[in-house]
Each structure stands twice: as structure tokens, then as C-alpha cells.
């Protein structure tokens, strides 16, 4: 096999426990997003647009839906004769096997997969962020700087910097220090969890890290600090566009609301940067005579007889007449009966909301309803639940 | 995999809807918000697990080929089976008839392992359950089954329909060509079931005697020698023979009952997948009784209309009783009523077009 310039390793094994009931049956990257996508579509589409033809997807937690969704990778142009998409769950070798212990260990366990492709560079990304990024520019930067590793960073508000892994840089954006969730941040450049490594260099670090029993085998906590200690050249790559970690219910809801802003700083319908999805076939949406739909995204297969404002309706959602859906995210195949009120909620896939139900928190909190629930008018939810 | 071969025969397409078929065949005419007419027949074939389909094209099939691609959307990209597009091999000559083209591609039939063939045109908007048709074909021990439907459309301007008359036992007694039908007449749907070997023998035989028309020279000529049985299709299917009926049958999809019949009950209707984002509605959108496809941005008013993928209706624009095909752009303050815009039409700012009686067509890529 010809050696490759670069390949991507996409970390998709996380449980996403902070997404509560939405991830009880599926991995976080497979959570529906934006009416027709799953979270992983954004990073996979980034790979497509960046011309990456080999992507290893590292899975661990509840991979079945993700496996069948990715299939042969065709929607992302990853059904290639040479390379393409490979699902990489933990496996047994002749000396046994084990679960992925951390992000770095997950990549380490797939050493042979990477060596087999023989890339010069390895892009490590994760499947739970919403952003549109041309990784090529980052690679150019990486090569220009002759760095051992390049880490994409984004400026976050100073007040929130203590929630992120913060990179302290010098005047040429070389990383001099890494602070995981610092109490007193010295910088507001947060790591986006997007790394480019020289494979030969990374190989050494992964091997050494594996031998270090005290290590948690994580890129952020172990590999990067070790590289810094050894005075490896780590470069920050500043990303200026929209980026959102949707690891919590609140941030998932916020990211959806960001899509509805006018004008929006994150458009799904950019003809030059389409987000590809393994979408099934659905009829066009029907908006009835009495319906009222404003400031919303509505996907195919929806039947809308009620009022929808400032909300995202995923495919095959039905909204009965006299119902009001506001500031909400309705996941696929949800059936909303007549005269229902839904305010500031995320409704999981396949849930049925019966006639007359009220889902609205009196204190304006966010309400989460899981997948395949049956909500009657008696079980009206007036409180944020999760 | 079923033992049936699917044939979509576009050779006999009539020159109806000329305004919309200038650059495409009827089968690839957009319909119902995100489909092409051929999708309905393709999906009906899919419902009976047909894994090998040939499309006999006459002309103007570039857009059709683009639409069908490898046939993946209809589960037809198989290693040995799959989708075959079979154009005329005499591009400079006038086609003598569908049998000529079947004969030119006889190898397609000969090589196929299936023993039964379903032949259908490419522009019928219906959900025919071919499972039932095949079952009746078998139980009747018919040599040829001819599908028909009782006419329920309005007056036609040109006699384009063929009419069957039937015996009391359902056998086809006679076929009259190019009639102007009245309500209740048995209209031949040009959809047939026939055994493959019989078809091959009959085609060879016809060509030897310079006979080139399937319905005339294979079906009608053998009404006595062979068992030709009628199958009445009683389901929904609009008779589309004019711009008015094309417009009206699109609008029928706004009837929730018909919408459910096509898209939510029984099997799905498949079409080419595009990667457009969900439709976007803004503060100023006012949409009622309309079908909207993905990739649309609706800022204005849309009423009783069919809006295809990637259409923009700007602020203050009003679209009523209209069909807007892919990537149309209705600019600020424009107002259109009873209009059919072909793909990529731009209706400029404050332009007003209102058609009374007959819908007006704005041709592909025109700026008005």
C-alpha cells in the first residue's frame, strides 16, 4: 500500500454520560443534531472537505447504531478503494486485549492500523464537537512551523476559561504550558481536541506513555504535558470560526439555538461546505393551512399542523393542531399530539407526546425527555427534570 | 432476490408538457416537491425486490442519467444485477418502435436469470403493488397481463390514451389506440407482465415481419392466440395529459390523505439523495398548506404551493398555488400565483406574475 500523507483518527468511544438519557442507547457522536445530522457528521464532513481519505473511527461505548450509520462511509465519500473508513473497536490480540483506557491508549492500541497506512502525519479529532474546519490549513501551519505537534485552539470568554484545557503560548503561538481547567487562567486559548502529530514522533510518546503505569493515557492530561516537558515543539493553531462542545444537555440545546440566530454565525446550508449525513429517505415536509412556523429549522418528513417557533424539528416529526412548540429541539420520529405545549425542551427520538400534555418548566429551566417515552397529559412536566 | 426483471419503457413517451420537457424526458420531470416522475415506478419495482432494471430511453436522457446515477438509492448497485440504461443504438434514425429497441438490446433479456418481465412507463404517479399483479398473473395462468385503470380524468385535448375492452372473465378482447376517453373507459396503463422467454420469442418474430410496436404487434396481435388478461388498478393515479393536470396532480399532494397514501402508508418512494440542510424559516415566514423540501430558505409567504429543494423565498415575496422547482429564487416583494417555475428560475424584485385559468411556465434558468 502506498504511504499516505496523513490519516485521521476519530475518537468516538465516549459514553457522553452528561447527555443523560440521550445516550442511554447510543454513543455520544451518534446523538442526532440539527434536524437531520448526527454529531459525528460534522467532523466526518470536515475530513471530506479537507481531502482526507482514510479515517479510523475508535468506538467503544454502544457502537451498534454508529456502526450501521457509518456503514461503508459513502455519504462522506469515504468508500475508497485505498483507505476509506474503518471502525476500530478494542480487540483481542495474541497477548489478550483490553478496553480503551484513555484517548491516547485508544490510538496506541491501533498502532498497527496506523503503521499499515504509513502516514507522515496523524490527525486526532473527536466526534463530539460542532464546527466546520479545513484541517488542511492547520496541516500547512504545522509543516511550516516544523512542529512536532499542532493543537487547534479557540478563544473562549475569560470567565469560562476555567472549564477548558487552556494553552499558554508565547508570541509566536508556540505552546509553553498546558493548564487543564485552571483556577486562574493565564490565557483564554482553549484546546479544541484537534491535534496533528508527526506519526514517528507520536509513536515514541505513545509507547513510553503505555509503559508509564501512573499515566491515565490521555492526550490532554499525559501526552501533551510529556511533550512539553521534553521541550518538543508544540504549536497552537488559532481557529476563529464557530466551535461548540456539545457534551452537556445545556450545550446541546444552546448549539441548536445558535443555528436559529439571525444572522447565524453557524449555517448548516452553506453550499461550499455541506454537512454530509447518512440520511434516509423522507418525503418533503407538509405545513398545513393552520400551521405557523417561524424562525425554525424543519427537516423532511415532518407534518406540521400546529405552531412552531424558534425550534428545530428533525425528520418525521409530527406536530398536531393547536400545539405550540417553542425554543425546543425535537429529535427524529417524535409524535406531538394536539393542543400540546412544549417550551424549552429537548425531546428524544421516537417519543410520543399525547394530546393536551404540557412540557414547560415554570422556572424557565431546560427540560429533557429521553427516547421512546410516552408522555400523557397527566404526566405534564412543569419542572426541569434532569 | 425476486425472479423478475423490471423494464421502464420511455420509447413511447408522448409530447405532452412540452414547456417542461424541452430539455428532459417526461420520466425525469420533477414532481411532488423532491421527486422525479420515474421515482414512483422505480420504487414500485423496489417494493417487489426487483434487482435488475433496464430503462429504454428515447431521447433527452442526460438529466435522467444524472438523477439515477448507479441506482444506489433504489438499491440497484449490485455486482451482476442493477440498473441498465439502454438508449437507441441508431441515434440518427427515427425510432421505428419500442420493439426495435428491445430487439437491439435483446442480450439484456437473454442474459438475465429472471423468468418474468414487468414493463411499465416512467411517468405514472401511483403505487401499484406488483406483488398482487404477479400473483394474479400466475393464478390466471396468463401469458400477458395488461394493467388498466378506469378513466376518471377530464377531457383530453389530444387523444393520447389507448383503451382496452374486456370480456366478462377479465380477458382483454380488444385494444383501441389513441382514443379520447370518457369516464369509466378502461385505459391501458402500458404496464404489462410477461414471461421472459415468450417476450424474447415474440420480439424476434415481430422484427422478422417488420413489426415494431409492443402494444400493437405483441399484445393486440395475439389476443386470440395467447391468454391476455386484464388487471384493474383501482388505486390513486392522476391522468396527467396537460399542464393543468400536471399542476393539479402536484397540488393533490397537499391533500393529507393522498400525502399519507404516497409517503407514510405501505412502501416508501425513493429518490436521489442530496445533502441539503433542513428548511429554514425566519421571523417573517408565513407558510400554509404547502410542501417544502430541504435546503429551502423561506422568509416570505407561501400558500398552497409545492416548493422543491434549495428554493429561496425572500422577505415580502408571495407564492400562491405555484410549483417552484429546484433552486428557484423568488426575490423581495415578488408575487406569483398559479405559476410553474422550472429549475433555477429567478423572479426578480417586485415582479408580479398572476396566471388565470391555465398555469404559466417559466422555463429553466430564466430570469424574469
How many structural domains in the coordinates of chain B? Answer: 2
Q: Total strand count of chain B, please?
A: 26
Q: List low-confidence stretches of chain B.
A: none
- The separation of the N and C termini of chain A measures 50 Å
Number of strands of chain A: 29
Overall pLDDT level of chain A = 92
* End-to-end C-alpha gap of chain B: 50 Å
Total count of domains of chain A? 2
Tell me the CATH architecture of the largest domain in chain B.
Alpha-Beta Complex
CATH homology superfamily of the largest domain in chain A:
Spore Coat Polysaccharide Biosynthesis Protein SpsA, Chain A
Overall radius of gyration of chain A:
22 Å
Rounded average pLDDT of chain B: 94
* Reported CATH architecture of the largest domain in chain A: Alpha-Beta Complex
Question: Count of helical segments of chain B?
Answer: 9
Q: Work out the oligomeric state of the chains in this entry.
A: heterodimer
CATH topology of the largest domain in chain B: Spore Coat Polysaccharide Biosynthesis Protein SpsA, Chain A
Q: What would the principal axes of the Cα set say about the shape of chain B?
A: elongated
Instruction: Determine the structural class of chain A based on helices, strands and strand pairing.
Output: alpha/beta
Q: Which range best describes the helical content of chain B: under 10%, 10-25%, 25-40%, 40-55%, 55-70% or over 70%?
A: 10-25%
Quickly give the structural class of chain B.
Answer: alpha/beta
Q: CATH top level of the largest domain in chain B? A: Alpha Beta
Protein name (chain B): Glucose-1-phosphate adenylyltransferase
Keywords (chain B): Glycogen biosynthesis, Nucleotidyltransferase, Transferase
Family (chain B): Belongs to the bacterial/plant glucose-1-phosphate adenylyltransferase family.
Domain Nucleotidyl transferase (chain B): 17-152
